[in-house]
Each structure stands twice: as structure tokens, then as C-alpha cells.
Amino acid sequence: MHLTKKEEKMCQGEYGETIRKSMEILVALGDIYEAEKLVNITSAQVSGVSYKTIGDAGLEYLEDLAQDPQARTKIPSTLNPAGVDLDQWEELGFSPEFTKRQKRIVEAYGKMDVMTTCTCTPYLIGNVPLQGSHIAWSESSAVAYGNSVLGAKTNREGGPGALAAAICGKTPAYGYHLQENRKASMVVEVDCELKGADYSALGYLVGQEVGDGIPYFKMSNRPLVDNLKGMGAALASSGAVALYHIENITPEYQNAAPEDTNDKITVVREEIQEVREKLSTSSKKADLICLGCPHASLDEIRDIAETLHGKKLKNKLWLCTSINMKAAAERMGYTKMIEQAGGKLVCDTCMVVSPIEELGFEVIGVDSAKAANYVPSMCGLEVVFDDFKNLIVEK
Ligand code: F3S
After folding, report:
1. What's the predicted TM-score (pTM) here?
2. Domains of the chain, with CATH numbers?
3. pLDDT single digits (tens) 98-120
4. 197 within ligand 1 shell (Cβ under 6 A)
5. What pLDDT does 261 receive?
6. Per-residue pLDDT tens digits for 154-164
7. Rounded to an integer, what distance in angstroms lies between the CA atom of residue 245 and that of residue 205?
8. Distance 242 CA to ligand 1 centre (A)
9. Mutate to test the pocket of ligand 1, among 141, 237, 346, 378 (most ligand atoms within 8 A of CB)
10. Is the dihedral of CA 178, 183, 185, 189 positive or negative?
11. Does any ligand 1 atom lie closer than 6 A to the CB of residue 363?
């Protein structure tokens, strides 16, 4: 890989040990994927935050790293969700032991100048790269959104790779950073009307078909950005999709359709319905409804608040979002509406990366195919997948 003189000095330790080690990670990645050079990045999004997933080894590694004054991010960087709501952990039932360790992880990242907003929707809270810019994001749903909806360029980074990129302000130029790798591999004709959780079910279905390829959707529906947020998360979890195009909608669709028109599938209503049914592992009613996968936007919070208006819930409800959205929701009165119905706006965490399995719930109700995919495997709990209004049980 070609390195500039400054990059060589960074590799040789002239800028300190942390930068040397970070460059070692980036150069090793570049060599594996045959990158010709490093590119400067404008944004990073770092995963590897929940104590549930990184444990004591991850905590100690981050605390050691944060002690070095050179271990500071060079560009705007945000954090993925943590394992607890950092403010409301006690009332939600999370243990003090877990929370103590979780807070140490978040503090270590904070010392390194990573913004400790702990969300998988960084693009809703100001970490918004320009079209065409190179970035290093690691949350798979955010990667799909960043590449496809914003038109930025990122691979599916691992946590250490994204942190190394944030510290050096660079990433190896391979994969989705190269324009020639951003063309679609399969056309997906959507031959039915979509609404609500259908988008997420569609993403799940197509992710299974396309794997780590790039789907090019043709649909008569005009999706909202929140629909794309959910669809991308599902594409990235049932497959390994990092980029998709939608004809006449996403920024890079022109010239992105595959040349081989035989690579085509058609999705009909029955298939969406089948996926919706298959994603539920229980026929029981959910005792906890968990929404906000990916973390909810203010529009989604408003819709849920309005649906709940005047109702009293029998099931518990967590609506997961960022602390920024929660602040706006409080000012708009949405938090109060949700709390009056018995629900809670939960920040910093989600149904998958928190130790939700320790809180005594059996069946989790979700409207996200990504959450439906991971709750059984990562939390060992049953799941019901449906539109929010169908998950509600009133007192
Ligand atoms: Fe975000 Fe958790 Fe879903 S990280 S995309 S809310 S599984």
C-alpha cells in the first residue's frame, strides 16, 4: 500500500504509540483487502460499546488506550448504543455492577473525544457526512444508511477499525470507498404496496437473497426516510448488505443498475406476509414492547405518542432513542404522552445490546426485523414481530 511521508512517520511511532498501533490496524486491513492507499475521512461511528458484548477485556483495553493523550479522535465521532440507559438504569432494573462497568467504557471513549451519545442513528443527531465523503462507520444499520441514503462511502467497519480510523483520521481505500464497487448486483422489483413494518420485512427477505451484494430496488411506493432506516437495518442483519439503491429515490441510483438484467427477483405481497409471520417465535402477547430499532426519530416518537394518547398499556413499553431525540420529545410533550400510557423513552441502549434477558421478560414485541432476528439469539427470549398498534395490549 502506498503511504505518504507523514503516514510513514505515523507508522514508525513519531506521533506516539497509540497512533502507531492504530496505523498498524489500518495498514493490516489495507493489506488484507489490497487497498492501494489510505483516504482521509470526515466522520467515524464506533461500535463495541456494550459491556454485554465486549466484557472486561474490552473495558480494560479501552481504559488503557484512553490514558494516552495521543489517543484522541481527529474527526467528528459518535458511539454506538451501550448496554444500559446511562441515566434511568436503576428504574429500568439494570444491575449496579453492570452499569458501573458500562459507565467506565463510555467514560473511556469520552476521554478519547468520541461523542458519548450512544446511538445507532448518528445521522439523526448531527453526524451527517456529505455525499461522496469517505467515512468509517461500524454499526451495520448506520453503514447501510450512510452509503445508500446519504451517499457517503464506508465499509462495514469493526469497532477497533473504526476507532483506529477515528484516531488517525484515515481509512484504507477498498470496498465501498471505490466507485467501481458501488454498482448493484441484483434488481429487486417490489410488486406490492408497503406500509409500516413491511419495509423491515422486505429488507429481511431481500438480505437473505442478496447476501453481501448490492440490491437495486424498483418500487412504486415512495418510502419515508424512517422506512429506509428500518429496511437498511434488516438488509444488513439477514444478509450483510452495506449499500442499496432505489430507483428515482436514493442519490446514486443512476448508472447503478446491474448490466445483467437476469439478476432479478420480484417480491410479492404473499412473501412479505410470510416473512412477517416467520419472524415471530411466539404466539403469546408481548410482555415488553421494544421499539426504536434503529433508534427512533422524532417523527416516529410523535407517531407512537399519538397512537398511545388516551390509552393505558398492560404490556411494558420501551421506545429506544438517542438522548438528543429524547430532549426534543420532552419539549414537544411526547415523552409525557408516552409515560401517561405507561411507556418509557429509553436512551443509550436497545433490546439487543442490553442484558434484557436478566429483567424477567419472556416475550418481546418488536416492529423491526433486525430486532426480531437478534433478540432470540442474543438474548434467548421469544419475540413477536408486528406493527406497533398490533402489539399493544390495553388495560
Ligand atoms: Fe440499533 Fe440495537 Fe437495532 S443497535 S439497529 S437498536 S439492534
Report:
1. 0.97
2. 5-178 (3.30.499), 183-277 (no CATH), 280-391 (3.30.499.10)
3. 999 999 999 999 999 999 999 99
4. no
5. 73
6. 999 999 999 99
7. 16
8. 15
9. 141
10. positive
11. no
